[in-house]
Amino acid sequence: MNYFLRALREASKSWPLLAAALLCSAGVAALWGANIAALFPIIEVTLKGDSLQSWNERRLEESQRRIEVAHATIADLEKRLAAGIPDAGEAKKSQNQLDTFRLSVRGDQAIALSAQHLAPWIDRFLPRDPFKTVLLVVAFVVISTFVKHVLLMGSTLLVSWVAMTISRNIRLKVFDKALALDRAQFMKWGSAGFMAQVTSTSDMLASGITSVYGGAITEPLKIMTCLGFAFMVSWRLTLACLTLAPVVGFLMVWLNRRIRNVSKNILSRSRGFHHVLLEALNNVLTVQAYTMEGFERQRFRTCTGDMMKTGMWHSFYHALANPITEILGIGMVATSIAVGAWLVINQETKIFGITMTDQPMTVPGIMIFFGFLIGASDPVRKLSGVITGLNIGIVGAQGLYPLLDMPSKLAEAVHPREVPSPHQEIRLENVSFSYDGIDTVLKDVNVAIRFGERVAIVGPNGGGKSTLVNVICRFYDPTQGRVLIDGVPLTEVALHDLRGRIAMVTQQTELFNESILYNIRYGRWDAADEEIEEAARRAHAHEFISEFPEGYRTMVGPNGFRLSGGQRQRIALARAFLRNAEILVLDEATSQIDVDSERLIHAALSAYVENRTVIMITHRASTLALADAIIEVDHGIVTKRPARQQQAA
Fold first, then answer.
1. What is the pLDDT of residues 106-147, one digit of tens each?
2. Range of 642's domain?
3. pTM here?
4. Which string of DSSP letters, residue by residue, matches 315-377?
5. Which of 42, 82, 200, 248 is the most exposed place for a label (fewest CB within 10 A)?
6. Do 167 and 252 belong to one domain?
7. Do 254 and 398 lie in a common domain?
8. Rounded to whole angstroms, how far apart are CA atoms 72 and 79?
9. Whether residues 310 and 429 fall in one domain
10. Strands (E), 356-439
């Protein structure tokens, strides 16, 4: 619940909009009750051919006359009781009569007071002709209904705007968090996890905010308005009609817990759904090559089936909320009909010895009372949907905010230190690294790479080559030891500054589903088209790009599937060349290029690597020829030697 309250506090920053929505909701509630109350003069007065003015005058006269009679009776009863009545039963009866008349006087005094206050308003604003009064009341009901729906629409739109703004901000924060997290924490959630958070979880939170600032305000205000009018008619009878409220409240608490648990299951199933979907589609070539279509179809059917089962439970509990709340509404109306009918038929003010009204109720009076309770029962029914939305919002907040609060292990320095450009040296001092805290991937590494040095990293698969590069680029921080650039620990250098010095080409080339121009320009977004073409020529990509009908505007498809592996790597190399960084990292960057292209690219690299640090992970002898030094990584043990020693060996 605390996380959801946090979301509501964030939404409250848009307080002018929410205040306007609250005013609209208050107007809706007031008009909701006023429409019912406006029917009273039609039922009570005008249909009898009387005017409200004469009805009010008669009301005042009759109440004053009853007060005089009651005072006389009270005085007589008080004298009798003061004189003493021998018969105890008779004395008790006289005392009860005295209490009844005193109560009656208070009721008549209230009627007289209201008649006196109403008189100037009725004389000023209402006609004396009964039919004209009916027309006026009908016009009021029609106009107020129109205004009520305008206010309701305004409240809905204002709250929806705030909820969607919060949802959008949450999506932005989740996206920012995904980009800022270190690789270990990112892989813990995975693309599917972030996808679920950005889509369904954010929608759940928006639904909850809309429920609170929309229905959770409007519907209770309607209920309070109608019950307030009902209390004015008879507060005792109104309380009697609410006898089922505690039972319904208990059932709603139980139902809330069930809905919340089911919503958590839906969120969990949603993550699994996105996981299976993205995994199968991102690896569709492997699925088809190994004829695993049937297996993946079954996986998808299973996860969607699980979602469907959980969704059906959610629908069941959501549907159950309606009858539970409707029981309260029907219970109120049924109780009022039974008790009210008995009071009107028998012209009584008590039932089972309990006083319900100060004066015997009239048929029009009890009809209006019924109307107020029916008016309260409708928002009570709608409140079930509000409660469901609230629970969904709570679950959404519980899924989102722990992710947003999770700090990246790559903490930014509060006061980052500046390093000259170009740098002079990258040094690893006593660096050890473990992904899980159990198996050590790098063990007490001490190595230095001078600026302008071309270093080839070699070793067996799984030996720690990529981990070493990731630590140098600060995709991970060492478990022990430190990495320094010109004597400054990387943890004290701004990540944007460090990464801005690096251009990287990996074996698993990552391209965006955009044009070739877009993918190359990603290396330096402010580059001119001429610079992009020059980078493509250097990477020997211009030749095949020019053969496409749309040239550099050619769309590469998701992750570049419309291009061959060699073409993708040359575009990635062009992107790295365009960046013109002082550190170039090549992770098997020429593994998918044919021999002729590789020879040309090596010639380009030979010219490009001057006056910059180059770190290459490679197994190819042609790439090793570019190296000044060899770093050998063998199961965490790192040694560095001049390239000629390696070649001689």
1. 777 777 887 788 788 877 777 777 777 777 777 877 888 888
2. 425-648
3. 0.64
4. HHHHHHHHHHHHHHHHHHHHHHHHHHHHHHHHT-SEETTEE--SSPPPHHHHHHHHHHHHHHH
5. 82
6. yes
7. yes
8. 11
9. no
10. 425-434
